[in-house]
Design goal:
It is built from three helices and no strands. It is mainly alpha-helical.
Length: 110
């Protein structure tokens, strides 16, 4: 004897607030990326240090936004957010300093 069971699938309407938040996040990240491209192609090569500094600052802003949104740290205690962001800022600063000093040593040799 065979009995047929029907499954009940409940379709939930889309949460428009969540969809709007996803598009807002994508828009903000896209805008920052577009500004990075604009700076990359419009800032003259004579202002290389300024351009690199702007890129580093924009990267930190993007990283903080990504950490806040996708890792949900924006909704956590602020101390947790800053305990992750501040070391990252120092790592980026350290890498920039190493590159700057390495370039100065390379220029001094040649």
């Amino acid at each position: 004897m065979h009995t047929e069971e029907t499954s009940h699938v409940q379709v939930v309407p889309a949460d428009k607030a969540k969809i709007k938040k996803i598009w807002m996040t994508a828009g903000i990240l896209g805008l920052i990326t577009a500004l990075e491209f604009l700076i990359a192609f419009t800032v003259p090569h004579e202002m290389e240090m300024t351009r690199v500094s702007i890129f580093i600052a924009m990267t930190i802003v993007k990283a903080a936004y990504i950490v806040g949104e996708f890792m949900h740290l924006k909704y956590e205690v602020k101390v947790l957010f800053w305990s992750i962001l501040i070391p990252m800022i120092f790592v980026v600063w350290m890498l920039t300093a190493f590159m700057y000093e390495g370039g100065a040593i390379f220029d001094a040799r040649y």
